[in-house]
Predict the structure.
Amino acid sequence: MNSFTTRFPLRVGAVLFAGTVLLAGCLPQHPDYPLVSQPVGEQRHLGLEESSYLAADSLVAQSREKLKPRQTILPASFVDDKNLEQSSAMGRMLAQQVSSRLTQAGFSVVEIKLRKSVRLVKGEGEGQFLLSRELEKIAEFHNAAAVLVGSYVATPSMLYVNTQLVMVKGGVVIGSQDYKIPLTRELRALLEPGT
């Protein structure tokens, strides 16, 4: 065997390896913000905070094309789906937890205490929600790009939550996430009106 035939496979291998390394540099980089996904397979029930954070991570991933970090998001208290006029300590806590995670993702979240004005109104179709006029005005005043809204339904054993990011201009939903939380006695106490 001559030295050319023994060195040729080594040269081809070296060129292929170098090409692979160079091409890997062209792949899109991972975002600075770590997104968390739900595990596939057996579902375990997550706690309130972890579920809210996962929902926020999903909203960030879905809205990435329309909403950029440092843009302002205005959170609204999550409301009982059976009565959109009614919120509770649970509704405020859910909104605060999702807002907290959005802040960690780099968004500017404007906290306002006018919770009565920050709500959804029922649309014409079944399951349709619109931003109230007061909420639109507040969002424009704060130069908010989007509004965080949510609703929940309680059953004897579970709390089902829906959260959405809605663009202020046009009312387009740019992210939506549903999740459920086991309803413990402590969490049920947070659902009482007036809490």
About this structure: The longest helix spans residues 3-24. Helices lie at 3-24, 48-63, 89-104, 133-141, 185-189. The longest strand covers residues 158-167.
